[in-house]
Design goal:
By secondary structure, this protein is an alpha/beta fold. The chain has 10 helices and 8 strands. An 8-stranded parallel beta barrel has the order 1-2-3-4-5-6-7-8, surrounded by 7 helices. Helix 2 packs across helix 3 and helix 6 packs parallel to helix 7.
Amino acid sequence: MHPLIEQLRGKLIVSCQAYMGEPMRHPETMAQIARAAELGGAAAIRCQGLSDIAAIKGRVEIPVIGLWKEGHEGVYITPSVRHARACIAAGSDIVAIDATGRLRPDGSTFEDTVEAVRGETLVMADCACMDDVHRAVAAGVDIVSTTMAGYAPGREKTEGPDLDFVREAVAVAGDTPVFCEGRVHTPAQAREALDAGAFAVVVGTAITHPTSITGWFCNAMS
């Protein structure tokens, strides 16, 4: 296993992303949040967009998992080799790529992208279902993640993290580490993910998205 990945074993990875049109959507803001997460104990940062990747890479000492979202439908997480290489150039230590079997905007496949950047970066496969996990492992990715579960065809969206998916993925991934990502909203759920076999846990909204967190409190009080 690559030493960079080994250092993430059993650790927390914080996703620092803001949605289009939000007041926090600015590279400097994301870099400050990433640094704050690092001080809190995060072992790596996941972020999107070339400006954010570059700003965060310049601010933290921990690894950066970069991706580039383009569009809103179909494959939009690092959808092509061009996007992946741009993430590498911006400073990503690991590049996250949509691992579903859906056609990319440029007509390429997931396997095409993995093969093209092999040796240039470590690849994290964002999976929606077990078909994606099998595809990712066969392609020789470095990390499998449950990122897309409930957001793309293949599995129903669970209330919290899809721990059954984590267990199923771990059972077939062999030596490929499985990260739990998606709807991990409490420290207890993060612990449960590790107990389910996750190599590491990615938390985003519950740490870095104050609009959602505020909404949770308001909804509980109304």
